[in-house]
Amino acid sequence: MTSLDLSGRTVLVTGGLGALGSGIVTRLADLGATMVVNDVQPEAPSGARFAYVRGDAGVAGDAERILNEATASAGGMPDTVCLHAGMVVSSPLLEETPGDILRTFETNVFAAVSLAQAASRRWIATETPGLLLFTASWVAEVPWPEIASYRASKAALVAYAKSFARDLAPYGIRANIIAPGIVAAGMAQKQWDTEPDYRARASRAIPLGELQTIDSVADTFAYAVSDLSRYLTGSVILADGGASLYPMD
Asked: Can you point out the beta strands (E) in 63-117?
């Protein structure tokens, strides 16, 4: 029995079918957690090691339905909710459209906060402790070009997470934030592979000299979910390979 044995834990991860989300879900499942994944895809891959609940917590009523289905699938209310689902639009600041900004905040902030509120109300009603984990980003504190709405949404998410931590601590509910760096997945990987200017900028920004692996992010989640982090609340776990240490230009 080790501190990273997650047997007996039930974890709900939103955005769990994406490249990074899948890595997180796999790592937590490997450590023994019962996993429930929420995403907007029609269905989970065949042979999945988790229960799947389709839905968008930003849609009215969906947060409660997602929790109902997650609880039924897992045989109990999740004790940990990872608010991981997110999106990014890459665009010069003056070319961002109102639609881009609204969609980014609806997905990255409103949906996460709605599900966190719903889960917290249930934990309080049953006098059960709970853990909220919000996925932010190192760029919440750094003006990385061409993703202004994403940056602002992640900064807002950090602010909300700290409010959850402060206000709900008396109920035994903790809230922490994981802020990864430039991960070798999704848009960052695509830009690294196809945009020389982006690759040059990102290379200068990462002191360790390489993109962050999915496994590195998953390891951080494993720590945050485990009892090793039991005294943390309102904490930003910055796992960015030092990217936030240096100016980028």
From this structure: 80-83
Element (H, E) at 204: helix 196-205
Altogether, the residues listed in the chain come to a count of 249
- Other beta carbons within 10 Å of 99: 9
Blockwise average pLDDT, block size 10, the chain, 249 residues: 84 97 97 98 92 96 97 98 96 96 97 98 98 97 94 98 98 98 90 89 88 97 97 97 82
Asked whether residue 191 is domain-assigned, the answer is no
Is residue 52 within a helix (H) or strand (E), and if so which, with residue range?
Answer: strand 51-54
| CA–CA dist 190, 96 (Å, integer) | 20
With vertex at residue 172, the alpha carbon angle to CA 168 and CA 178, rounded to the nearest 5 degrees, is 70
CA–CA distances in Å: residue 184 to residues 64, 151, 187, 192, 205: 33, 18, 9, 8, 14
Cα Dmax for the chain: 54
Is-contact 233 176, C-beta < 8 A?
Answer: yes
Report the candidate in 88, 59, 58, 63 with the shortest Cα–Cα distance to residue 12.
63
CATH number of the domain to which 126 belongs: 3.40.50.720
Helix axes 98-105, 148-168, angle to 10 degrees: 30
For residue 55, being part of any structural domain is answered with: yes
User: Is pTM beyond 0.85 here?
Assistant: yes
| Domains contained in the chain, number | 1
